[in-house]
Amino acid sequence: MNAIPPPFVQIDGVAMRYGGVEGTLALRGCSLDVAEGEFVAVVGPSGCGKSTLMRLVTGLWPPTEGTVIVDGQEVAGPLSIAGMAFQNPTLLPWRNIMDNVMLPLEVVQPHRRQLRSQRGHYEHKARELLKLVGLAGFEAKFPWQLSGGMQQRASLCRALVHDPRLLMLDEPFGALDVFTREDLWDVLQDVWIARKPTVILVTHDLKEAVYLSDRVLIMSNRPGRIIAERTVPYGRRRSLDITYTAEFQAIVHELRERISDARKAEAA
Ligand SMILES: Nc1ncnc2c1ncn2[C@@H]1O[C@H](COP(=O)(O)OP(=O)(O)OP(=O)(O)O)[C@@H](O)[C@H]1O
Description:
Layout (H helix, E strand, L loop, with lengths): L8 E10 L5 E11 L4 E5 L6 H8 L7 E6 L2 E2 L7 E5 L10 H11 L3 H4 L4 H14 L15 H13 L5 E5 L7 H18 L2 E5 L3 H7 L2 E5 L6 E6 L14 H22 L1
Parallel strand pairs: 3-8, 3-9, 6-7, 7-8
Antiparallel strand pairs: 1-2, 1-4, 4-5, 9-10
Bound molecules: adenosine-5'-triphosphate.
The site of adenosine-5'-triphosphate has 12 residues, from strand 2 and helix 1.
């Protein structure tokens, strides 16, 4: 009999308060599990603690209460197996695109150790990623020479270059126009199909959540916790055509209602 593998990410009864006992309680009683290779989206009212949750999973902050376990180990500091991308691409302006993408390799072991002797191999990998996101030929350009969408593509490559087993995406497409955003959904979808990292995506865009994920987790108002989830019934590879179907729109509508209920519950 095959034993069921433990969840790759296990968050149990987490609370997070910023700034001491009188500070802001961002999360309370927050629990969730994510399986290895699963793609989940986290949605919820503004300010409910989604980014805080991301910081706890990646070890950038310790929780005030509860436990965060990733790959069987309690998170006690910044996680080297995680790749991250945020709403603002945060590329270093003095580095060209290639050197920005290579940055995690200079920091994360075992790549850091191997970088000098295997630079050719790593550069090839960075170029392949840039090609995958449509940035071949832009390696020597600087961030300010690229559009916002192109910078976001580069930052996705930087999040992926060290083959992270966990990809944490906090509103990565939030600042982009709708066409660029939809292009990047498919870029991300292809990356996920090719490499199968475990992905946690925070987004305000419910269509994005449903199009990209296997499961959408819905958070309550602050202090945030997971109050509901919705499994997405589509296989891969998905095409943007599904976003126009009545079934897809009904799922988005259902999520919108649940978030609206969460907001009203807080106001009551
Ligand atoms: N570094 C911090 N110090 C103090 N309070 C903070 C800090 N970061 C976040 N908060 C507070 O914690 C709460 C949750 O913030 P968080 O950014 O996690 O929410 P969010 O759901 O990601 O918000 P949004 O949907 O607007 O992006 C907010 O009230 C915020 O003001």
